[in-house]
Amino acid sequence: MQERYLDFGFNSMFKRTFLFTIIAATLGTAYAAPLTKDNGALVGDNQNSMTAGANGATLLQDVQLIQKLQRFGRERIPERVVHARGTGVYGDFVATKDLSDLTIASMFKAGTTTPVFVRFSTVIHPKGSPETARDPHGFAVKFYTQQGNWDLVGNNLPVFFIRDAIKFPDFVHAMKPDPVTNVQDPNRIFDFLKSQPWSINMLTYVYSNLGTPESYRTLDGFGVHAFKLYNDKGEYKYVKFNWRSKQGVKGLNLDQVREVQGRDWNHLTNDMYKNVYAGNYPKWDLYIQVLDPKDLDKFDFNPLDATKIWPSDVVPEVKIGTLTLNRMPKNFFQETEQSAFAPGNLIPGIEPSEDRLLQGRIFSYSDTQLYRLGANHQQIPVNRPRVAVNNNNQEGFMNMGQTESQVNYEPSTIEPKPSTEIARAVQTPLQGTVLQQAIQKQQPFKQAGELYRSYSVLEKNDLIRNLAADLGQVKDIETKTIMVSYFYKADADYGTRLAKAVSVNLKNAQAKAAQLKDE
Question: Which residues are catalytic?
């Protein structure tokens, strides 16, 4: 009898759920089935990655994080899960400032020209979608340097919706079409975003006209995350990379979007091909912001939080070079579609920071490309380094290598492949214990308010109109009220106007806002 009871209670998730549901019903409470990993084990924390201390790197032992990212990267074949629709262009980056004091990366010596391949893209929408759809827009640059390939994989907006990679699959699932109707639904989007109050900074960017660019030539680009540059002494600084369009930055309002979509829903791609073929080569200046590690804790926010910018009046931008795009691919599939970008493609002198979203992307993007294109995808011409590759990786599908050596292991005295001392990881101090908790200094609302107040009257009008077009479709009044309270906390005028636009009771939103903290 006892054995039957144990089997009934715990032998399967169905039986376990059934038992707990009966218990909950007896107690008069609603039962929610607990979240588990694929092996059925319970999840202890699905909001925060495991880190080595409060500001340390993410740990590989975080099975929930790794499993979510691995499964997420394998959800689509062969189309990219995100950034599916893109336009690729070749060009050159010319360094104009010597950064030898900051980094051993040779491409940052003044006068050095580095060939590049750039892929612009939309993020959420599928491969055949209209390019007029509101979206962040990818700005990914592959530098073919003399030290190997470096991929700076960013967007046209300087921040992101989330700050921990463990939430990336959840965020994209919410933004993608409903799994039942296959239609993108604001009810699902804001149901998720109401749990991420720090997302309103990004929402204030993406619901401006920057979310619907006039062309790929007229948008800025950002690495979004902080990286580290380190020099030949092993000294490092935190750095952000910002591309500034020399064509200016221009977006489309809702009326212009409708007009352009009716005329040419491939307007971003067609504009780039037309201008490059005509010799009107677009250019961007690359700026960096540099932060000393000792100054990380001097801000009222966490500088390694991807939902925050580094204000340029506090951390100035310095121009270090210019990018010129001057040649279109000869074949879309062979080059643009098979191009593979990954933040893990780094060169000596550049390292990732402890940014939790970047730490997950370091793994996830490379893993996704391995799945999408195969183990040897970096042998495809568009991805192939311009320097010799010398390692012991072998075989696999579509291997185009020219390996003749009998030595496919290391170390070997027959054919040594020594490591290079200057390419060692920099020594980053660590302290604390392994933990899963949210970052400190969250400050969800301050920068969003500052951004709103920086907009012109016309830009504010367009922002409210654009945002209300989606938030106004949300049926659940509690979700709408929570979202409006976030915007009100950022700026009273912002929240007041939005409350009116989406028919939310302002006093209710104000009451919720009064309970929020911006710290």
Answer: 83, 155
